């Protein structure tokens, strides 16, 4: 299992089904939640703690897109693909809201590796990344197709 510390860059041929990657952590607080939501998802349950108490969430909750943005940051630091984490499609869900005080971390696992038939220098890596809080509750589930490149000959 790789950790969030400066690993060597990985190419398609370095990857294996079942391989896991674990990110570092990110503490999210009320200020971050409100700032992100004010700019990108201005709904009262993301921007106003008082209004959020009477909402579906029964308290301030981060936008799912904020959770995704933080997850992306953690993925970039923990999935050391040689040419970056390049998405080619995926599916996302948020089974539980992200709250102020949550400490996010991501565990990613390679599910499939499909070398390209038409472009032999690359392939698609299907990954499943779970974003957890400090209580090991799943806040986000992301299944993504990522582009990975072979080493140059």
Helix-strand blueprint:
Layout: E1 20-22, E2 26-27, H1 30-40, H2 44-47, H3 49-53, H4 64-78, E3 86-93, E4 103-115, E5 122-132, E6 138-149
Antiparallel strand pairs: 1-4, 2-4, 3-6, 4-5, 5-6
Descriptive labels:
153 residues, alpha+beta, disordered N terminus, elongated, Thiol Ester Dehydrase, Chain A, 4 helices, 6 strands, six-stranded antiparallel sheet
Structure in words:
This protein has a domain at 12-27 and 62-149: Hotdog Thioesterase (Thiol Ester Dehydrase, Chain A, Roll), CATH 3.10.129. With 153 residues, it is an alpha+beta fold. 23% of the residues lie in helices and 32% in strands. The chain is elongated and about 55 Å long. Strands 1, 2, 3, 4, 5 and 6 form a six-stranded antiparallel sheet that branches. Mean pLDDT is 94; it is low at 2-6. The protein contains four helices and six strands, in the order ββααααββββ.
- Helical percent range? 10-25%
Q: How many helix segments? A: 4
For this structure, the CATH topology of one domain is: Thiol Ester Dehydrase, Chain A
The description of the largest β-sheet is:
6 strands, antiparallel
The backbone outline, from C-alpha atoms, is elongated
Count all strands and give the number. 6
CATH architecture of one domain: Roll
What CATH first level of one domain would be assigned? Alpha Beta
Mean pLDDT: 94
- Stretches with pLDDT under 50, minimum 5 residues: 2-6
Strand content: 25-35%
Name the structural class.
Answer: alpha+beta
The rounded Rg comes to 17 Å
**Helix-strand string:** EEHHHHEEEE
C-alpha termini separation: 27 Å
* The CATH fourth-level homologous superfamily of one domain: Hotdog Thioesterase
